[in-house]
Amino acid sequence: MLDRIDLHVEVTPVAFNELSSAQQFEKSASIRERVIKAREIQEKRYKNNEGVYANAQMSSKQLKEICAISAAGQNLLKVAMEKLNLSARAYDRILKVSRSIADLAASDGIQPEHLAEAIQYRSLDREAWGA
After folding, report:
1. Cα(69)–Cα(72) distance, rounded to whole angstroms?
2. What is the pLDDT at residue 9?
3. 86 — alpha (psi -120 to 50), left (phi > 0) or beta?
4. What is the mean pLDDT of the chain?
5. Residue 39 DSSP label
6. Whole-angstrom distance, CA of residue 43 vs CA of residue 22
7. What pTM, to 2 d.p., does this model score?
8. How far apart (Å, rounded) are the C-alpha atoms in residues 103 and 114?
């Protein structure tokens, strides 16, 4: 069942030190702009695909074309798949989320760090990760 959910994130309470810190964090307006730009990238990418307007909706064929990854990325994903005992569905979801993360970073390609972040969002699958 968890396989069908793209992002698994454990939300923990924020420590007082973080709340009271003077450190500047990214402003909501800046995040909003990145999201708008990422959505525009996806809209342009899928403009000729009726009914598809976001990475989550791409077909298996599109996944192979749009979510190509380097050898380093393939190795990272292979290790994660084996350690976490992930399914083919999880593999597809990780690639789609990686593509969205790359879009948010305005990156033409999926980099290993995008894959690593997407794998990290499978937190409820991670009982065996690193074991």
Report:
1. 8
2. 72
3. beta
4. 88
5. H
6. 38
7. 0.83
8. 10
**In the prediction, which pLDDT does 18 show?**
81
Of 9-13, 91-95, 102-106, 119-123, the poorest mean pLDDT is in 9-13
Which residues, at least 6 apart from 104, have a Cβ–Cβ distance to it below 8 Å?
Answer: 34, 35, 38
Question: In angstroms, how far is CA 4 from the centroid of its own chain?
Answer: 14
**Residues contacting residue 34 through CB under 8 Å, at least 6 positions apart:** 104, 106
3-state secondary structure 45-91: HCCCCCCCCCHHHCCHHHHHHHCCCCHHHHHHHHHHHHHHCCCHHHH
Q: Which residue has the higher pLDDT, 87 or 107?
A: 107
